[in-house]
Design a protein that fits this description.
Structural class: alpha/beta
CATH topology of the largest domain: Quinone Oxidoreductase, Chain A, domain 1
CATH class of the largest domain: Alpha Beta
Mean pLDDT: 95
Number of strands: 14
CATH architecture of the largest domain: Alpha-Beta Complex
Number of domains: 2
Distance between the termini: 13 Å
Number of helices: 10
Length: about 300
């Protein structure tokens, strides 16, 4: 029997359980992956607690997780691109990666570069493709100044690097404890809280060209106050502001392809993209992993080891 994270009602982390489930079977065009690492993401916690029910309802009992990396242990009919024993990274759209085994369509996995660590490989998909889409959505050009909220989080830490690779001046909103790390990436850090608009104006005396909001309430309004045009503002956290101001809301769903994931993996291997791993937990401690994540001050990714 395999093991998988399940919850059968909305609630806090205490609704999460690791239960025995039947071993998955690969159908035509599918593979079964023995999961080595699986990332966790803030959106999964919001689905679990019901706050995203209107947008992404859960069907009970529900699994969790999209990110994964592991080894192929079975292939279905018609699969020739991979073989049993291959090391892969990829994703599932079935909220199922936080498990010892998962079945996925073969087009949702790719070879894991040997130089890529398991922890990074298994936690790159959601944060990486969200950062990729958010950066692309605001059309950054060399010489632009772009503000990023939540700049030291799982998505933000990648978005600021993708922007810097385009020769963009990046102002990163983050707590003081993350400022030194942001500076090491070439980012200009500013602290959140009262007086933020003034601190950004000091850091960007020639104005702000684009704004990526990865954190939530009031940051879209801040971007508007700073004079950023709505078509150069992207939020993955404030959907009410999307309707009110006509800003963009491009995230993971705008770039959730294996080609983008492979491109990001190659950037990590090349040293262009650094993926900080904040903590690693065994699958059995999934509640503790989400408790840490939901404190909202994690620097980088949290990873499960099934």
């Amino acid at each position: 029997m395999a093991q998988a994270v399940r919850f059968d009602r909305y609630g806090d982390v205490d609704v999460l359980n690791v239960v025995e489930v039947p071993d998955p079977v690969a159908g035509p065009g599918q593979v079964v992956v023995q999961v080595v690492t699986a990332g966790i993401n803030p959106g999964e916690g919001k689905i679990r607690n019901g706050s995203l029910h209107e947008r992404w309802p859960a069907k009970f009992p529900s699994g969790q997780g999209s990110d994964l990396a592991g080894r192929v242990v079975a292939v279905g009919e018609g699969v020739s691109a991979v073989a049993v024993g291959d090391e892969v990274l990829g994703f599932t759209n079935e909220r199922a990666s936080q498990a010892t085994q998962v079945v996925v369509p073969v087009e949702q996995i790719a070879p894991k570069p040997a130089e890529l660590s398991w922890d990074v490989a298994g936690s790159l998909f959601v944060a990486g493709t969200t950062a990729f889409a958010a950066v692309r959505s605001v059309s950054p050009e060399a010489g632009d100044t772009v503000v990023v909220s939540g700049a030291a989080g799982g998505v933000g830490s990648l978005a600021v690097q993708l922007l810097r690779a385009r020769d963009v001046t990046v102002i990163g909103i983050a707590g003081a404890g993350n400022h030194e790390w942001l500076r090491s990436l070439g980012v200009l850090p500013v602290a959140y809280g009262e007086g933020l608009a003034d601190r950004i104006r000091v850091a960007a005396p020639d104005g702000v060209d684009a704004f990526i909001d990865l954190y939530g309430p009031d940051y879209v309004e801040l971007a508007i106050e700073l004079g950023v045009q709505p078509d150069r503002i992207d939020t993955i956290a404030d959907f009410a502001a999307v309707a009110k101001y006509g800003v963009k809301a491009e995230g993971n769903g705008a770039a959730d392809t294996i080609d983008v994931l492979s491109e990001l993996a190659d950037l990590v291997v090349a040293g262009t993209l650094r993926v900080p791993v904040a903590a690693v937990y065994p699958l059995a401690e999934v509640r503790a992993a989400y408790t840490e994540l939901e404190r909202g001050h994690t620097h980088g990714k949290i990873v499960l080891h099934p």
